[in-house]
Structures
1.
Amino acid sequence: MGTKVHMEALSPTMEEGQVVKWLKGEGDEVSSGQVLAEIETDKATMELVARGDGVLRKILVGEGGTAPVGSVIAVIAEADEDISALVRDGRAGAAVGGAGAEPAKAPQAPPAAQPERAAAPRPSPVAGAPAAARPAASAPAATGDGEDGRGRVRASPLARRLAADAGLELGRVAGTGPGGRIIKRDIEAALAEAAAAPARAPALELADYEDVPLTQIRKTIAKRLVQSLGPVPHFFLTIDVDMTGMVRARERINAFLGAQGVKVSINDMVIRATAAALQRHPECNAAWTGEGIRRYNRVHIGVAVAGEEGLITPVIRDADRKGLAELSTEFRELAQRGREKKLKPEEYTGSTFSISNLGMFGIYEFTAVINPPEAGILAVGAVEERAVVKGGQVVVEPRMRVTMSCDHRVIDGAMGARFLQTLRAMLEEPAAILM
Amino acid sequence: MRELTYREALSEAMAEEMERDESVFLMGEEVGVYNGAYKVSRGFLDRFGPQRVVDTPISEAGFAGIGIGAAMVGLRPIIEFMTFNFAILALDQILNTAAKTYYMSGGQIPIPIVFRGPTGAALQLAAQHSQAVETQYTHSPGIKVVTPGTPADAKGLLKAAIRDDDPVVVLEGELLYNVKGEVPEGEHIVPLGVAEVKREGSDVSIITHGKMVHVALQAAARLAKDQISAEVLDLRSLRPLDVDAILTTVAKTNRVVYLEEGWPLAGVGAEIVNIIQEEAFDELDAPVLRVTQADVPMPYAKNLEQLAKPSAQRVVDACNRVLYR
């Protein structure tokens, strides 16, 4: 009975591993517990040990090759055992690349020299694998994953084209044609399912519910947020800010600006302070591009506004260079048109950092979802009078909680914390914004 | 529109062309006094006289050669073969002389000749008299091949063939001569090399030519009862071939069955399948299947002959297979 050697999860967060070095070669005797290979995980290089006794018969992922956790990367078996089924299963996995490994999709050439040939008098089981695979492949269940047992997905040419056009991975589609061949109707079914998936609500125990059809804006929100929480690794930092100075400053500013008909809100001041802080911490005014980190030289702040159908985020460009009155007027106007769905695309795209303020709803503290490709967003709570301890005394003062969501690919904890220190200083001493 | 039989349509085409152009004449076995073995030239001898309606001995190679000679000196002969089974005797003249002379004379000697007559099986005429010969001619450059399946196409394609400056083989069908259909009045010409969709459909394409158009239409009608929409594309010309029409229908339905009367090996369908896989690979949702005559000499026994010929049911079955039903 052969043993499949799996790519094991050698770190808690490991999703795939790279074979750095095979310490045993094909044909070597191995016993349970012996180190087979060095695997580079997302954190370190670890040892992969054998889980069975026998001969390392076949290496499926060569040195330098990567394989997802759980996939078969080698086979251990008795010297003369037929391992074609194990090899076939392994090849069907998604292991790719690596010196010496046969790529999953490469046609099988007869191996030049097989160590097991000496051990086995009958034809090499590995060389015989394609022939052995054929009868099995010709009579699989009517519905399959389209794999033909040699790692190649069976699909009609049209199905391949349709899948490519839709960005659909053929391996994820169940084929209903002969031998599990993926045909046009399977692609159409998969696409229909994919389109329907976001609409599926978690089942509630109460049967009474109302299905609300998705509006365009709702769909876009869903798409964007799924895009966010999936691949964007968030972490959160919270500060509690003394708003005494800010509240007082606002009263004075509004008294001063009242003649011009301008009334500055706390939110406007938060936007202004955030922009000023970002200017000092360009590492937080950044984006993950896939190939690198983009740091923006200009500060464009997207501010979440609740419209009737959903969230829209008008952008205040160069918010760090605008005076409070100008910023306040501009935001009020953008927000108004945002609620009326009258914003032009360039008015709600291109932000480099975002702010979401739910204080007006009495929300004390919350976390916001990053708007990719931005690296951060502030979740701003309500300004409330709270009891705090200051110098051994309980005092009552207006406080505000701000939580920053950070894309950990771009911002590390200390970077975010330093930015928040600056922001807090500016919120607590509004005059600092002038500096 | 008026209805004519396929026979009347061919007759009208020849008569109109002989009226229009004095260099056109008809030659073959029994075309004159007997009014044609299948009565296509009924009344021609009286109407055009013995100089232009010429009865020949039973000598296919001989009168085919005489016709080619006449074409070399500027006439436009129509050579009628009683059936194309007998034209096998004249293949040297047709393939070696008619098809090659224009090329080998460096374009100096065109051969504007028509060879026409029935191809394929009728009923119980046995192995030697039941052959579909399309492939033999279509294979050769230098010659054009048309296969009218309806009276309108019979008239239009024969007129175009007579006017063409290359040798054209017009393959008719004994079982087609009595088929009736609408034929436009007046000048009706079907250009060589243009296929026609005989029935629009969206689920599967039955591509065919000649007599099999009717079998394809029967199959499409049966499929329609199962809510399957089959398109029938009649190639009409096998050389030149309307590749665009083939690719268009493949792109429309993604599934193809080729239907032909001849044998499968190296048949017309084999070439069509090749073109489709070469030019429309990414449009295919299923392998292209063929329905052909069984790969045997045509049996004489009625029951076996029926089994050997392509049938509407076999076409329906093939369509269901490419539809994965």
2.
Amino acid sequence: MRVLRLIGIGTLMHFKTMSRGLFEIATGLIVPIIQATMAVYLLRAGDEPQNMVKAAVGAGLMGIWSSVIFGSGGAIQRQRWQGTLEMMVIAPRPLALSVLPVTIATGLQGLYTMAATLGWGWLLFGIVPDFSHPLLFLVAVPACVIGLGMFGLLLASTFVLMRNANAVCNTLEYPIWLLSGMLVPLTVLPDWTNPFAAILPTTWGARAVHEAASGGAVWPSVAACLAISAACFAAGALMMSYVERRARASATLALS
Amino acid sequence: MRLIFVGGAIAYRALFNWTTPSMFIGTLLVGPVFQLLFFAYLGRQLGVANDGFYIVGNAVLAASALCLFGGTMAVSNERRYSTLSNVLLSPRSRTLIFLGRALPYAGNGLLVATFTLVVGKFLLNMSVPGTAWFGLILTLAAASLSAAFFGLVLGSIGLRFRDVWLISNSMVAVMILLSGTTVPRENLPAALRAIGDFLPLTHAAAAARELAGGETLANVLPGLGLEVAIGAGYAIIAAVLLKIFEYESRRTASLDTL
Amino acid sequence: MTDYAIEAAGLRRTYRSRTGWLRPKVKEVEAVKGVSFTVAKGELFGLLGPNGAGKTTTIKMLNTLLIPTGGHARIFGKDVVAETREVRQRIGYVFGGDRGLYDRLSGLDNLRYFAELYGIPPREQKQRIGELLELVNLTGRERERVEGYSRGMRQRLHIARGLLHRPSVLFLDEPSIGVDPVAARDLRRTVADLAATGTTVLLTTHYMAEADELCDRIAVIAQGELKALGTPEELKHHADGRTVLEVEAYGLEDETFKDIKNLHGVREATLETQGAVQLLTVQSVSDVDVQPSVLARLGGIRLGRVAARQPTLEDAYVAIVAGDRS
């Protein structure tokens, strides 16, 4: 119960901090809108101009992932700068529990993105978000956010150790977009990538959201996403305690 | 002239000193390759264009983000590390100093773009005529340079507005959309196409595709010339903006604080 | 159960830094070279030393943020490396400067967040936060964002944060840095009150007056080594048998200053610039009157006040820190 409360309040506080920066909000809105526009033009140019909802939802999913990957990296870096990373470490809770709210909050921020791309598509291109399962969409998206947040924790453990964490983020944006089938269906990828895709929680989260939007059995994907995410969280927690020890030994927690 | 090159090289090393060789490979070389794969597969799936379109387009694009961020960094990091006032107090030509700062980033961009092109060619089995390589590298160089100067313009704007990275981030996305590197330009509305005409990369991407398709260098020279002209235009704009903002910030004493 | 709140035995810490890009060279710096001391329960213990002496490194080894490269330390008998969680439940950490808080959140939100991190039961939180806001005199300002706080307010919020879980040991790392004199006085009163209620406090500072006023015992640390340890009174004996001469000068050259340092009978000399005035402090052996020879060296330089006085803790500190260097 206390753990849930910690995660809840922690997420709320980190979400508040992030939502008060013009930079974070604008980055979360502008770039995905441009990406959504791109997706729309690409889809129109292609052989399959009918499935426009997929473009808007896909761009929104890409935005959530960008938010998690850049947000977690940026947030850890910012905490290092402002000295609060040490404060999190020195608290008697396992570090994973203090950092998880950060990554979940970045996922929540991605919700702006989803809303923005859907709204943009509707306003500018007349793409009506007539989802197959509107209610399940409201289940699938939060599940996807939690999943990505837990996956983000696993990645964040490396950010604690490395001072230039953000640089690593740049490389992880496109691979996950590609491998999780957020915009490009997995069927076009070479077969050897399938096992990788299958173990990524992002794949199942994206699938659940796409299924809710365009039709399909949503629940199995939601379940798979949450199950893999839980495993990611467990692995992330182990990594985090290892990394914390490493960071204390190599003195990378503070900037000075 | 020496001032441009030596000053630029030293500043570049200083600003990039946070990276280690493995980070360099990881972030600067691997990233663009994944971007290329993403768009190539997207193109395949949608039947928009063939792999060649994306390989060449994304090689040109690989130069852009790097040069754009580099140009921005060239100016804005000086301020972040509070070295800007020192630079502005230097008696040498400030314009040359800053234009020089953009050069190493352009060189870096060329390196990454060439790498992306070669890797893309082998990963997706694209055939490029052997005679085209010289022209292609020349084109990538022109694209890198004009993107770096464009970045310098953004960096100069950053002297006046705080969240310059927001502008740079958005611009990278805009370039993906409008420069014809990923979305075939004939599919864009006329207004967006017109904006693309004035962005860096657009003409270089077109020229590079023609070269890869077997066109001779002589025939793509006009396009290449346009790219260089656009780059020069941005260099001039950057120089003018720097002068204006420098004057203004000296008047209002907002150099390091704003 | 041990009688000590803090035990440090032979603590060492080296930092490795990598320089060079293609062929990295590893450089090792020994920041703390074997420091040992004990702090009794309820004691207010000062760690005094110049910047870069190893104070912060020492404190971070004691509060679990850094793993010592050598030696060991215990907080209430719990090992800082092996029993990290137990140690963390018992300690609070407050450092000086602007950092360590969430600027975009209100003071209250900061406290609520850290109350969760410390697992303070929800029922107690509200009351505890109210008490602490009262203690650090921030009641009424708690809903404002921290980015609008003054240095002194931030520092007080920091202290409230450090006390949320009623730690038995409080580490205060340069708490008065950059705080105005009035705020610094309030801060000292708060610290003194805490110690009076039984909290063990380990304070690092380079302000002598602060250490003199507050601390039961002081350890002087310089170049990573413990140079002296004792009550303020005991430390003052390090300057026994000395007399101090203070001269205000305008335009004293480095050369002349060096000459003065080498005069017969002079033990230490420091030169401090305060605006246009330079304050020359010369410590000498009591039985040699250095005043005439010092003034002779200063011939031709405009002088202000000249005074001889008995040594203070500050002079003792200079003697301890500088004495070893020569």
